[in-house]
């Protein structure tokens, strides 16, 4: 199996009938980038900045963050690197920033924390933009967006950081700094009913299917007792994903998905049929997904999707998709 999958290593990620699907990496540590680049991925679709923050005893300074981000941006010249602003809270805590709550996944998490602490946010986005000088491949992504006002507030802070940095660099640097694209994670159910308004405020959407599944189904993504209820193939999740793709296409917003679903053959097949033409995943899944893409015609994937959307429970969807995948070899 490994050999079969490995055979697509240097081939493009494109279906037999010519539909290209861009594959990107999920990352959080800078180790292993070299290896990842070999897989045929194009840039980073999700850089989880909280990961380098976790293994420390205090918040990294602006300078430390700048160095860290420079390494990441430099490893992927001319390929986009999407850096997500700090997404702590929920299940991810920093030893030097304790949060005690009864219900952390519904509490102080992601953008909620950084908007309450603009000094943390400003330092981080300034460091990102500083690191981007001379590279120009940075995109910024906001996690846990549940309302339009959060996007407005975060964009205002990003503009402020951009303005401050432009003034500072004007004196020392000839090349004007570029304003990065700013996008949001679609992972809180409220956001999927305001896609039109959100589309007007951002440059891209990236669906976080891990959290979107958790919040749509009201099933903790880490609780073994209810793990049998947690499935991104639940018909309601699939319909939500399909609706997001339809609207993103309608409003002309570039769309990707960076949750675990993208790294599963059955998931990737459905997503590509829905219209997700960018998928971001852990490096070790890239070749497997590329193999699937190269072996399913896009028009066949669309037929499979329309059938998958008719089932009434996740198990049936899953069984049906596995049958279809087995037919591919
Ligand atoms: C997600 O929620 O699907 C996602 C990609 O982000 P994280 O797993 O870091 O919450
Ligand atoms: Mg998430």
Automatic annotation (TrEMBL):
It is found in: Cytoplasm. Belongs to the PEP-utilizing enzyme family. This is phosphoenolpyruvate--protein phosphotransferase. It comes from Thalassotalea piscium.
């Amino acid at each position: 199996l490994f050999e079969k999958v490995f055979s697509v290593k240097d081939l493009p990620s494109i279906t037999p009938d010519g539909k290209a699907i861009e594959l990107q990496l999920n990352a959080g540590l800078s180790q292993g980038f070299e290896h990842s680049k070999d897989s045929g991925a194009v840039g980073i679709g999700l850089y989880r900045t909280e990961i380098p923050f976790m293994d420390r005893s205090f918040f990294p300074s602006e300078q430390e963050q700048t160095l860290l981000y420079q390494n990441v941006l430099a490893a992927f010249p001319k390929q986009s690197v999407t850096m997500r602003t700090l997404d702590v809270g929920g299940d991810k805590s920093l030893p030097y920033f304790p949060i005690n709550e009864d219900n952390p996944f519904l509490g102080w998490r992601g953008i909620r924390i950084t908007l309450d602490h603009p000094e943390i946010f400003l330092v981080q986005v300034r460091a990102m933009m500083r690191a981007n000088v001379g590279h120009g491949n940075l995109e910024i992504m906001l996690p846990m967006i549940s309302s339009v006002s959060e996007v407005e507030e975060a964009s205002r802070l990003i503009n402020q950081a951009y303005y401050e940095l432009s003034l500072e660099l004007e004196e020392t640097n000839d090349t004007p700094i570029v304003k990065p694209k700013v996008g949001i994670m679609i992972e809180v159910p409220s956001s999927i009913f305001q896609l039109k308004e959100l589309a007007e405020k951002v440059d891209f959407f990236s669906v976080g299917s891990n959290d979107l599944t958790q919040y749509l189904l009201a099933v903790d993504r880490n609780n073994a007792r209810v793990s049998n209820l947690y499935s991104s193939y639940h018909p309601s999740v699939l319909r939500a994903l399909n609706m997001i793709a339809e609207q993103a296409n309608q409003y002309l917003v570039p769309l990707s998905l960076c949750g675990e679903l993208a790294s599963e053959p059955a998931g990737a097949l459905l997503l590509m049929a829905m219209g997700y033409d960018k998928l971001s995943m852990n490096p070790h899944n890239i070749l497997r997904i590329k193999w699937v893409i190269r072996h399913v015609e896009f028009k066949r994937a669309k037929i499979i999707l329309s059938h998958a959307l008719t089932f009434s429970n996740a198990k049936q969807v899953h069984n049906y998709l596995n049958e279809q995948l087995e037919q591919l070899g």
